[in-house]
């Protein structure tokens, strides 16, 4: 391997990173991760840290999941690629469709459309939503509704429904006909309340108002995450998603659950929607479907949407959408092995149990450190929101957040920061001891920065 300086210089010279300024790379070089083991990653200097980011919310089974690695190796030998465009398919993919229909049966989802990642899945769901209404003789239903602070990836459709200007501003104009409701964010909201149930009601009223203003017959779908992830782990009140479902049903609007983060146990339920008792019309998934070892995703489709497409014999029913890598056999084999291991290890139950310990630990940090303004989480997705003044809720400065991150890393734990949030999303297979490691590293970080 080349020496460290060569790598850092050439990383800065030749490589643009997602969600980063290309000019920052020399002054603030990224950590070079060269190896991983269990729930730890090892950097180029040989330093081993617990990966409390879980890759990027995706390595739910950790880095040493041999059955998934073996499935990938074996499938590469057997059939490294073939297309699923009309006329051909492959057997691991057929088996996977069967397993996914079983997996998502309780969510009422019966068909899968395969993609190469979360942004593809979101794009697919948005397009199929429009097509669904055309099939049903309502071609004017083209608009989308989403939540502020929601994150839905980076394709033009996904960016259009995104609820954070950082991911929109530089790429505008985006899709017309997209409307954003307030985020169900208890700590900061425009409703002058900290009562999560009241916030849910207030957003429901906003949704009804917007529908009345736009005309229900112009709206295709509401897209939302059951727990908002990248927006800062915003956990709505338990009534929120059921309320949104009710309003969608009343007005013939499809509900797309974007479960790219939450579909395979992260919240402590097997899907985020199921955790709230909601059945969506479509669900976008990706990330943990292959334990992060292969780029892959699936949009799961309900009986209702399936029936509309499959009973329609005119040109509106044919799917004019798909990717070269829709249904990649290596991804399918990886996903099959991942599902089997996920079930065997019952990771949702571990996410719920370890998540409760994590939340208790984070609440303890809030009691101890003025810097912590808010603690949020569900299962193994959590956030600390850092503030410079608790009364005013002013966001902590960038260098303060960076100090927490760097100190925690030195103490042996990698977290992720996003604005003034510290995000924690470890593999779902962590132990109680790992939770303690995360809390004590953050404790050190907050002490150093406070
Ligand atoms: N939707 C949600 C809810 C996500 O969290 C993400 C990524 O974090 C995406 C979509 C986009 O997925 P990808 O980065 O795989 O394209």
UniProtKB/TrEMBL annotation:
<dbReference type="InterPro" id="IPR015421">
    <property type="entry name" value="PyrdxlP-dep_Trfase_major"/>
</dbReference>
<dbReference type="GO" id="GO:0008483">
    <property type="term" value="F:transaminase activity"/>
</dbReference>
<dbReference type="InterPro" id="IPR015424">
    <property type="entry name" value="PyrdxlP-dep_Trfase"/>
</dbReference>
<keyword id="KW-0808">Transferase</keyword>
<dbReference type="InterPro" id="IPR005814">
    <property type="entry name" value="Aminotrans_3"/>
</dbReference>
<dbReference type="InterPro" id="IPR015422">
    <property type="entry name" value="PyrdxlP-dep_Trfase_small"/>
</dbReference>
<protein>
    <submittedName>
        <fullName>Aspartate aminotransferase family protein</fullName>
    </submittedName>
</protein>
<keyword id="KW-0663">Pyridoxal phosphate</keyword>
<dbReference type="GO" id="GO:0030170">
    <property type="term" value="F:pyridoxal phosphate binding"/>
</dbReference>
<keyword id="KW-0032">Aminotransferase</keyword>
<dbReference type="Pfam" id="PF00202">
    <property type="entry name" value="Aminotran_3"/>
</dbReference>
<comment type="similarity">
    <text>Belongs to the class-III pyridoxal-phosphate-dependent aminotransferase family.</text>
</comment>
<dbReference type="InterPro" id="IPR049704">
    <property type="entry name" value="Aminotrans_3_PPA_site"/>
</dbReference>
């Amino acid at each position: 391997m080349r020496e460290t300086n060569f790598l850092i210089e050439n990383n800065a010279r030749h490589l643009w990173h997602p969600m980063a300024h290309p000019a920052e790379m020399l002054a603030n070089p990224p950590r070079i991760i060269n190896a991983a083991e269990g729930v730890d990653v090892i950097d180029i200097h040989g330093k081993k840290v617990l990966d409390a980011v879980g890759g990027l919310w995706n390595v739910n089974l950790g880095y040493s999941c041999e059955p998934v690695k073996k499935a990938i190796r074996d499938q590469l030998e057997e059939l490294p690629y073939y297309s699923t465009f009309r006329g051909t398919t492959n057997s691991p993919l057929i088996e996977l469709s069967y397993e996914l229909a079983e997996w998502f049966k309780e969510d009422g989802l019966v068909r899968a459309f395969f993609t190469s990642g979360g942004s593809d899945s979101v794009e697919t769901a948005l397009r199929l939503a429009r097509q669904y209404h055309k099939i049903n003789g309502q071609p004017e239903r083209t608009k989308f509704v989403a939540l502020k602070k929601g994150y839905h990836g980076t394709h033009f459709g996904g960016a259009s429904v995104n609820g954070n200007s950082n991911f929109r501003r530089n790429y505008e104009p985006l899709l017309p006909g997209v409307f954003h409701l307030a985020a169900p964010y208890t700590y900061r909201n425009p409703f002058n309340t900290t009562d999560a149930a009241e916030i849910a009601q207030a957003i429901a009223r906003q949704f009804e108002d917007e529908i009345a203003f736009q005309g229900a017959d112009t709206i295709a779908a509401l897209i939302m995450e059951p727990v908002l992830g990248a927006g800062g782990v915003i956990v709505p009140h338990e009534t929120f998603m059921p309320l949104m479902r009710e309003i969608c049903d009343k007005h013939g609007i499809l509900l797309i659950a974007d479960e790219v983060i939450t579909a395979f146990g992260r919240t402590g339920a097997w899907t985020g929607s199921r955790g709230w008792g909601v059945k969506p019309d479509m669900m976008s998934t990706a990330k943990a479907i292959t334990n992060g070892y292969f780029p892959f995703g699936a949009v799961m489709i309900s009986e209702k949407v399936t029936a509309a497409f499959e009973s329609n014999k005119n040109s509106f029913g044919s799917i004019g959408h798909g990717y070269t890598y829709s249904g990649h056999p290596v991804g399918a084999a990886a996903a099959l092995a991942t599902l089997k291991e996920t079930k065997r290890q019952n990771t949702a139950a571990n996410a719920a149990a370890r998540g409760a310990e994590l939340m208790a630990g984070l609440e303890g940090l809030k009691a101890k450190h003025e810097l912590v303004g808010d603690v949020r989480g569900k299962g193994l997705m959590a956030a600390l929101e850092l503030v410079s003044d608790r009364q005013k809720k002013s966001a902590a400065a960038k260098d303060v957040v960076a100090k927490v991150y760097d100190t925690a890393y030195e103490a042996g734990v990698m977290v992720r920061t996003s604005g003034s949030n510290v995000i924690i999303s470890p593999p779902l297979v962590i132990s109680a001891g790992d939770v303690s490691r995360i809390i004590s590293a953050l404790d050190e970080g907050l002490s150093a920065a406070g």
